[in-house]
Specification:
heterodimer; A: alpha/beta; D-Maltodextrin-Binding Protein, domain 2; seven-stranded mixed sheet; 13% strand; globular; B: mainly alpha; MetI-like fold; two-stranded antiparallel sheet; 24 helices; 4 strands; 2% strand
């Protein structure tokens, strides 16, 4: 049937031609936005983009997951125009790769706390898009009531709560050890709680050597005490190791096999969408390590940076995204904090937002981001994973040995 | 003149000799060489970057030498080499298992009725999709993971399947699920082509069991074994995205393979000389395996005589008894059901809402609907699908246009013996070259040319990468029916239907096989697109980077995206599978 074949080919050709708009062929330059978000967060970001209205340029979102730092590697392909950097601590290390922010946006990067990382010699290199409160513990109030315990107000109380829960047959903790940053967040909270000056010193050092700080070992020991308690971790170490961040939340709120989980504010949409009982959701912030000390608050966030060389379209998109109302669609989805804003959230997130803006709190940026290679997947992530494997559920007796091993491993990474 | 008897048709074509015989060598016209020119230009897309990589690997600040290969003493790189070699072993294991399964299906008639499509589907989907499917199956919670649930139900407790050490089981299952169908199909085609009289003679002589295997099947299937081993081993050494999607982040360094190690080294800004050295080591392993595989092919001529006349059905294998047929039918059905099961799990998971799929397994009856598809569509899946369609079509078209004349030149262009052999050797080496050997220089060149992100550039790279295999395949098909014979048949005084039938039976399947395989390969590609034009362009990379960070919480959208991305290659493969198998085996029939 030559005629029908010809018709088919013609139709296919026409279809291809219409499909080959310069946009799809990759000839028209889209503004490429590299993000680390996935799943619900990624969808929420797409909603934010949709909410910006019609733009004069196509926008392409490139999800890079945990490999986001490759976005401005020296040999990166198709360098993105905007990077939503989830580790603001990386900004000072990449100043040469970054374009300064336009003058009208620069003040946004000089907000409290952010200016240390985003501003250098009076030039602003990034503006915050999303703030993360990394010292939040989500829990189920029903099991706390069942065991007769209250959210802890001190680290020592937390250990007692865990013990009481275990005795009542309830697994206290769920831990997402499959994601290394969950482990480093835990350690950072403890370290910031016991030795803020050491924390700040390590964050500022050009060649940080945490293995030489006795306080670092002390923080590991405290952490080991909690992790090593028999029956403390849901599913034991093996299952913790394969759990990603949302899995640990589902373990607590979906399958109800554990009582609480250290997670950030951005855990909220996962908690709410998977909770078996939507009313059984509680939140407390990381308690102070000792009476009289300030509670540690580890802050993270995603900052918008412009890799060199940039274009007007990219600057325009940053401007639109940093408008106060831009993030509203995401705030509606939950799990989004805007720097300096304390209203419009759910009650839980409002509490976290208040703590972030309250003067006198022990606020510090995520340490592992500022340690360079030492803080990433081959450094602290690996050390803490091995540490967890050594201590998890094995009792306090193994902790000192495991701490020594971890410090030695860290030293090897430092020296390499 | 023609002669026909007993279903055998003989045709003799003669022509008068004109002019007198002249001494000396025949003149070789230069014209046909032009046929190879496009292929040469296209191959330079690979050859030049490969040269650059090799030079970079041996260039050290102190001059040329092996200094960069010190990278191999790094424990991480050593582990990666070890794991890559382990994958080669896995590939051999799959070939052996596939051989015996094919033998079983050959001896047990009627098994293939249902088995064939069940085996083809996994081969049509990408490794990334099968990785995602098996990660769903082996999820560590009994509420979500099928295997964990069954194990817990049977024994009260279950090992953590994705945990240390055990993740290998998940990786190997996913890989085997993808490739076993291909292996079995090809072996089965080879077994079917064994002439019946040979089988009968051996049976009459009482040769059975192991002796029969060694006397009959193994030697006769050697050429096919070569093709099969080659493709599976190359796939095993190239494993990359499978590990990224299956293995949880905390264990990825113990599952590291050379390809991944190379990628991490390039992205973390390691010295380019050292990463080039890693690439060369990977290449050396693959090339060694490839050359051994091709040696197996060379034992026989590539172009095998093809049955010109359809054998008389009454002379075929005796029809087995009805009870035997029914038994084989049932076994086939059972195996097919087991084999198709992962695909069913994937589809049903995709039909659950994201919230339901994140908490409960596919067997849960609540939350059914299309909301997971909607969620997957939200992150730009269809835009990526359209772009993949364009890339795959363009690559296939370019490939066919360039590979056909080249294969003709190699088969019948009258190349001098030595040149012909060299060309074939170069094509074999190019066919097995891992993408890491040319990715870095090529992408730098594309970036420098201002073509970064251009789909056309990517399609050309795909066509160049597919060219060697296409030429090898088409050459053996063309070689089985000489062009003189074809033109005689077309223009001669008598239309020689037998010859035309030969052409139909050899050229066409080979062409279809090349087109279908290239299209599916490009459609399912992750690594070439990822390394050449960065993440975010292909649907699969969107699935991986967009969802894998929260794998089980996004089970629904992951499954939905995987299903959508698999429909086209599955339909294509199912409709053309028989032809593809024939095309793949024409040149290597016993």
């Amino acid at each position: 049937m030559p005629s029908s074949r010809r018709a088919f080919l013609g139709a296919a050709g026409a279809l291809l031609l219409t499909g080959c708009s310069s946009d799809v062929l990759g000839l028209r330059r889209a503004v490429r936005v590299a993000v680390s978000w996935s799943g619900q967060e990624l969808r929420a970001f797409h909603k934010v983009l949709d909410g910006l209205g019609t733009l004069e340029y196509p926008v392409e979102v490139v999800p890079l997951g945990d490999d986001i730092s490759t976005a401005f590697g020296a040999r990166s392909t198709r360098r993105p125009d905007i990077v939503m950097l989830p580790q603001p601590g990386l900004v000072p290390r990449h100043l040469d790769d970054l374009e300064p922010m336009p003058d009208d946006l620069a003040p946004l990067g000089r907000a409290r706390l952010w200016d240390e990382l985003l501003t250098h010699n009076g030039t602003t290199y990034g503006v915050p898009f999303k703030t993360a409160h990394k010292s939040a513990v989500w829990y189920r109030p029903s099991v706390f009531e069942q065991a007769g315990v209250q959210p802890p107000r001190l680290w020592s109380e937390w250990l007692t709560v865990n013990r009481t829960l275990t005795q009542a047959g309830i697994t206290p903790l769920s831990l997402a050890a499959g994601d290394g940053w969950v482990l480093t967040d835990f350690l950072e909270n403890v370290l910031l709680g016991i030795a803020p000056s050491v924390y700040v010193g390590l964050a500022a050092a050009t060649d940080p050597r945490p293995s030489r700080q006795p306080q670092f070992g002390a923080a590991l020991r405290l952490l080991g005490t909690m992790w090593s308690a028999p029956g403390a971790l849901a599913g034991g170490v093996k299952e913790s190791l394969v759990q990603q961040f949302p899995d640990a939340l589902i373990e607590v709120f979906g399958h109800r096999r554990a009582a609480m989980v250290l997670a950030s504010d951005f855990a909220e949409p996962v908690v709410r969408s998977f909770a078996a009982d939507p009313d059984d959701i509680g939140l407390f912030t990381f308690p102070p390590m000792s009476p009289g000390a300030a509670a540690p608050v580890v802050v993270g966030g995603d900052v918008m940076v412009l890799p060199k060389p940039t274009r007007d379209d990219a600057r325009d998109l940053v401007r639109r995204l940093s408008a106060p109302a831009a993030a509203d669609p995401w705030i509606k989805e939950g799990g989004f904090l805007v720097d300096g804003r304390v209203s419009g959230y759910t009650p839980e997130l409002t509490r976290l937002a208040m703590q972030l803006t309250k003067p006198g709190e022990q606020l510090q940026f995520d340490l592992s981001d500022q340690l360079g290679r030492l803080g990433d997947i081959n450094g602290l992530w690996r050390v803490l994973t091995d540490f967890l494997v050594q201590v998890g559920g094995r009792g306090a007796a193994v902790v000192p040995g495991a701490v020594d091993d971890a410090i030695n491993e860290l030293r090897t990474v430092e020296e390499s | 003149m023609g002669l026909q008897t007993n279903g055998l048709s003989l045709e003799i074509v003669g022509r008068e000799i004109s002019g007198r015989p002249v001494p000396g060598k025949p003149r070789r016209p230069a014209g046909p060489y032009l046929l190879g020119l496009p292929a040469l230009v296209l191959s330079c897309l690979l050859l030049v970057p490969i040269g650059v990589t090799v030079v970079a690997a041996f260039r050290t600040p102190a001059g040329f030498g092996f200094g960069n290969f010190a990278v191999m003493t790094d424990p991480g790189a050593l582990r990666a080499v070890g794991n890559s070699l382990l994958w080669v072993l896995v590939a051999f294991g799959i070939v052996v298992i596939g051989f015996f399964l094919a033998l079983l299906s050959y001896r047990l008639p009627a098994v293939t009725t249902f088995l064939q499509p069940a085996l083809v589907i996994p081969f049509a989907v990408s490794v990334l999709v099968s990785g995602a499917t098996f990660r769903l199956l082996f999820d560590p919670t009994p509420e979500r993971g099928t295997v964990t649930a069954v194990w817990t139900w049977l024994f009260g407790t279950s090992p953590v399947w994705l945990g240390p050490g055990l993740f290998w089981l998940v990786l190997v299952s996913a890989f085997g699920w993808t490739w076993l169908g291909y292996v079995v199909s090809l072996f089965r085609a080879g077994l079917d082509a064994i002439p019946d009289d040979v089988t009968r003679t051996l049976t009459a002589e009482g040769v059975r069991g192991w002796r029969r295997l060694r006397a009959l099947e193994i030697p006769l299937l050697r050429p096919i074994t070569g093709v099969v081993t080659l493709t599976v081993v190359i796939a095993a050494v190239r494993v990359f995205d499978l590990i990224l999607i299956v293995v949880p982040g905390s264990m990825q360094r113990s599952a590291d393979v050379l390809g991944l190690n190379w990628w991490r080294a390039t992205t973390s800004g390691d010295d380019p000389g050292r990463t080039a050295a890693l690439g060369v080591v990977l290449f050396a392993i693959v090339a060694a395996v490839g050359l051994i595989g091709v040696r197996g092919l060379r034992r026989r001529r590539w172009a095998m005589p093809v049955t010109v006349v359809r054998p008389d059905p009454s002379l075929g294998r005796p029809k087995p008894r009805r009870s035997v047929r029914r038994f084989g039918w049932l076994v086939g059905l059972a195996v097919a059901l087991v084999w198709i099961f992962p695909a069913v799990v994937l589809v049903i998971t995709a039909l659950h809402s994201p919230a339901e799929a994140g908490v409960r397994g596919w067997w849960s009856a609540s939350g059914l609907g299309f909301s997971s598809f909607a969620a997957a569509a939200n992150v730009g899946l269809f835009r990526a699908l359209l772009s993949t369609l364009i890339i795959a079509s363009a690559a296939t078209a370019v490939l066919l246009v360039i590979a056909v004349p080249t294969a003709y030149l190699v088969a019948w262009g009258g190349l001098p013996m030595r040149v012909g052999r060299t060309v074939m050797a170069v094509f074999v080496v190019l066919a097995v070259t891992p993408v890491q050997m040319y990715a870095a220089p090529l992408r730098d060149a594309i970036d420098a040319a201002g073509l970064a992100g251009s789909r056309i550039a990517l399609a050309l790279v795909h066509a160049a990468a597919g060219l060697p295999f296409a030429v090898l395949l088409l050459r053996s098909a063309f070689a089985s029916a000489p062009p003189a014979l074809v033109s005689e048949a077309l223009q001669g005084p008598v239309r020689q239907s037998a010859v035309l039938a030969t052409v139909q039976r050899t050229y066409r399947p080979a062409l279809i096989a090349v087109a279908v395989l290239e299209f599916a390969l490009v459609w399912n590609d992750f690594i070439v697109g990822f390394l050449i034009s960065g993440p975010g362009t292909t649907p699969l990379s969107l699935v991986l980077w967009g969802e894998a960070r929260q794998f089980s919480a996004s089970s629904g959208p992951v499954a939905a995206a995987a299903v959508v991305a698999s429909i086209v290659p599955v339909v294509l493969m199912l409709s053309f599978w028989r032809t593809v198998v024939r095309g793949l085996t024409t040149g290597s029939r016993p």
